[in-house]
Amino acid sequence: MNKVLTISNLEKSFHTRDGEIKALESVSFDVKEKEFISIVGPSGCGKSTILSILAGLEEKSNGEINFSKDYTIGYMLQNDSLFEWRTVLDNCLLGLEINKKLTKENKEYVIHLLKTYGLEDFMEEYPARLSGGMRQRVALIRTLATKPDILLLDEAMSALDYQSRLAISDDIFRIIKREGKTAIMVTHDIAEAISMSDRIVVLSKRPAIVKKIYDIKLSNKSTPIHNRKCKEFSEFYDAIWRDLDVHIQ
């Protein structure tokens, strides 16, 4: 697969009243086309900062970020941020409206996504009528509506209960793979990362460096829920847990 993104020696420092805080020390990794990458690391190590820099919401302090061509980026946050006074369909069309790209063709594409991924009967409903998992599915379709090349997922499922999180991880994985998107996900959940990812980038505590990159090879790799049953799953889990300096009893 072709590389779509190369990050080299990325650094980020924040200036506060108490002085400079260095979040990222020298972070380097690449992302291949249609690959699903997860970034894990201790709380506060700068995982989400990497996504913010890639999305252009924050400036890097040093290092290089090189895209292989002019890619568009979609950013999905932890909070679904749906507007309660807009219908599901209208929420999904919001990005197109903002970017002045709400054409008949693009609207039909969004309706196609809603029908394909089980939301046809809810297009004219309001978000209050939806479960947490359904709201996240709507948020993902809203992100896909503008046809981004690369998806950034920042703890996109962390607000859900465990059962809903398992189900929506399958949904999100299936949608991303079926739509042929490249994805970079930040998560605190090691099991979630292993079950969904092609590779996992493990960061150290702040200031973060790349501690290790795991190539997730599982027997009979399939959906995230199925992948948790693979024999190699627990081996990856224990290894990454140790990398995060969590002591196994």
Quick tags:
249 residues; alpha/beta; nine-stranded mixed beta sheet; globular
Overall geometric form? globular
Number of helices, counting only DSSP H or I runs of 4 residues or more:
9
Low-confidence stretches are none
Mean pLDDT comes to: 91
What is the percent of helical residues? 25-40%
- Give Rg in angstroms: 18 Å
Kindly state the number of beta strands.
Answer: 9
Biggest β-sheet: count, sense, barrel?
Answer: 9 strands, mixed
User: What is the H-and-E element order?
Assistant: EEEHEEHHHHEHEHEEHH
What's the end-to-end separation, in Å?
Answer: 40 Å
Helix- and strand-based class?
Answer: alpha/beta
Beta-strand portion reads 25-35%
Strand order of the largest sheet: 4-1-2-9-8-3-7-6-5
